[in-house]
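Person: I keep going back and forth on a fold encoding question. Show me how you would write down a chain together with its backbone fold. Please set it down just below, with no commentary around it:
Helper:
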Amino acid sequence: MTRLILPTSRIASTATAVALATLVLMAVIAPTVAATTQAGEQPSFVVTLDEGGDAEFALTLTYDLTTDNEQAAFEELRTNETAQQELRDRFRNRIAGVAADAQNATGREMSVENPRIELSTTNGGETGIVVLRVTYVGLAATDGDALVVTEPFASGFQSDRLFVVRGPDGYTVEGVTPQPTATSDGAVQYAAGTSLDGFQVTFTPATPTETEVPPEGGGDGATSTGQPGFGTVAGLLAFVLVALVAARSS
């Protein structure tokens, strides 16, 4: 969870806010990728496929709002359409860059569309949740009824949060590499810090006799360099903080 720290003085102008955003973004070193889980509160990155091979990418960021000022800042962001639009656009642009690299690697057409944002609080208002979503068109290759996902995750992608890939409803995991931390309900998940170099997962329609195979081991893996483009998603964490500050000071 990221702690929201508000300055004691108000931001003087939009130009100041933009400059601050740039400085904070440049200061982010380690990638921090996250997304929603079923509970909707744990930072993680979730990819959900449909039967045509498109997918929803969901990134959830959580923030500590234990003071009145932090809570007020988050509430003001919830009503600031301009700040929300910029967050949506930045997320879409980050993933669009990833899709362009993956398209070059696979030779299959890929694109990103329909960016969305959701803001909510939990734990009595002491935790702020920002969920950013996009539709990634053409993520999975199709082979008959099978869906195969490799790029953009196979080329050294690593998430420092829980990473989940879910097949469409009624699909099961036919094969996956590297070994996931867990499999369940047609999904694979990897613990934070797992290297996904060489990643591939195949989903096929389940039959009445098919059952899930429990994982044989953990997926803590070694650190990798990170897939080009994904590291820049880390800047969204910092930018959300700046957006909160700007909303509070407007």
